[in-house]
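COMPLEX REQUEST
Ligand: cytidine-5'-diphosphate
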Amino acid sequence: MNPIVIAIDGPAAAGKSTVAKLVAKKLGYTYVDTGAMYRAVTLFVLQNGLDPKDEESSCALLSEIEVQVDAEDHVFLNGNDVTTEIRSRLVAENVSYIASYKKIRLFLVELQRKMAEQASVVMDGRDIGSYVVPHAQIKIYQNASVKTRAKRRFDENISKGIECTYEEVESEVKKRDYIDSHREFAPLKKSEDAYEIDTSFMSIDEVVQAIIDIVNQKVGNKK
Ligand code: CDP
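STATUS: Structure written out below.
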């Protein structure tokens, strides 16, 4: 039987990863955080002293990069666990440039497609339903107002000890949304066949339940 794919796309800090992890746990599926992969490549570019705005030199590093994610949601860059480092502000500020380069996207999309062939997955990102797995049985577009998303990311940063002001986070979120939705190749967009969920006034549990209800309707409890 073909594995099930639940694609959860949407703009920055819409709460996709929190919700996707919980949905995956409830269903016994594998959670795949594709944003973490773009963040790992960004970290590598920065570690090598390169400017992420320079497409040619950033893409030239690809042959030296191995990215892996495990079932516990750890991210490895050339064998090193970079799960915490990829959440830094410097990575957040630069990741959308790296994610706009076609060569880098094709490299990571290949890994993502392999993962979606091997097991039933909940995969979150920007282009999962529109480009990575267009045949996904379930597509969700998870959204929330800019202010709500910036506040959520600000609170998350503070709880993790990442220093920032609300204004800085709001402008980073807006900038990433703009770059992500205006890039040429596989931009952020809602697929026509995606269910849109505006989470601005919903709790995490309500969003998880809304997705589980859609899954039950569409695929029952297939694995
Ligand atoms: O901060 P948030 O959790 O919302 O973002 P993320 O999922 O960690 O993704 C970080 C960045 O990676 C996004 O702003 C996009 O630029 C890029 N990305 C992408 O282009 N395509 C994906 N499938 C996932 C992430």
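REMARKS: The longest helix spans residues 102-118. The mean pLDDT is 95.
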